Amino acid sequence: xxxxxxxxxxxxxxxxxxFSSSEFDTMKIAAELxxxxxxxxxxxxxxxxxMGKTCFVKGLANGLGFSGDVxxxxxxIVNEYxxxxxxxxxxxxxxxxxxxxxxxxxxxEYLDAGGIVAIEWSENIEGALQNEKVIIxxxxxxSDNERKIxxxxxxxx
Length: 157
Ligand SMILES: Nc1ncnc2c1ncn2[C@@H]1O[C@H](COP(=O)(O)OP(=O)(O)OP(=O)(O)O)[C@@H](O)[C@H]1O
Ligand SMILES: [Mg+2]
Prior knowledge:
The protein is α/β, with parallel strands linked by helices. The chain has helices at residues 23-34, 53-64, 99-104, 107-111; strands at residues 2-8, 13-20, 42-46, 78-81, 88-92, 116-120, 134-143, 146-154. It has an eight-stranded mixed beta sheet. It is globular, with a radius of gyration of 14 Å. The termini are far apart. Magnesium ion binds next to α2. Adenosine-5'-triphosphate (ATP) binds at residues 20-23, 25-26, 47, 49-55, 72, 120, 145-147.
């Protein structure tokens, strides 16, 4: 795993690029990010089909100490992972196309709940991602098993 890491925790700015060569690597990178979180962050995942977004959220959940199953909430829209250091709310916005849809998922209530909100297909709700605590995780395919993972954002005061 090659990585370059720049985290200025006091100002809450994250700017890192990682190269993952397995699901295990991707989960480890996510677990590392989970250690930086203090509640209220939105983890906006980008990347096409099968890039490893669900895998990344598994790593976040593990890193926060959640011990249950983590699965893609494609039909449920949101899964709640309670019991770790922080609550984690896992959204899949694949089917969300407008503000009414988004409202009906309870997204805005979850944002106020003080936990972490992780969003697959965050591209679909770009206009609702203006919060200063948005951390963007962009996953790109390098080869069958390799992914470039760029993490950026945070509370830029
Ligand atoms: N370095 C890697 N990190 C994560 N997954 C990888 C990696 N290399 C290969 N894979 C494979 O890519 C797939 C990722 O699946 P995952 O469900 O996490 O993707 P996803 O982005 O959530 O997909 P979807 O768009 O369907 O929600 C798995 O089959 C996994 O084995
Ligand atoms: Mg998924």
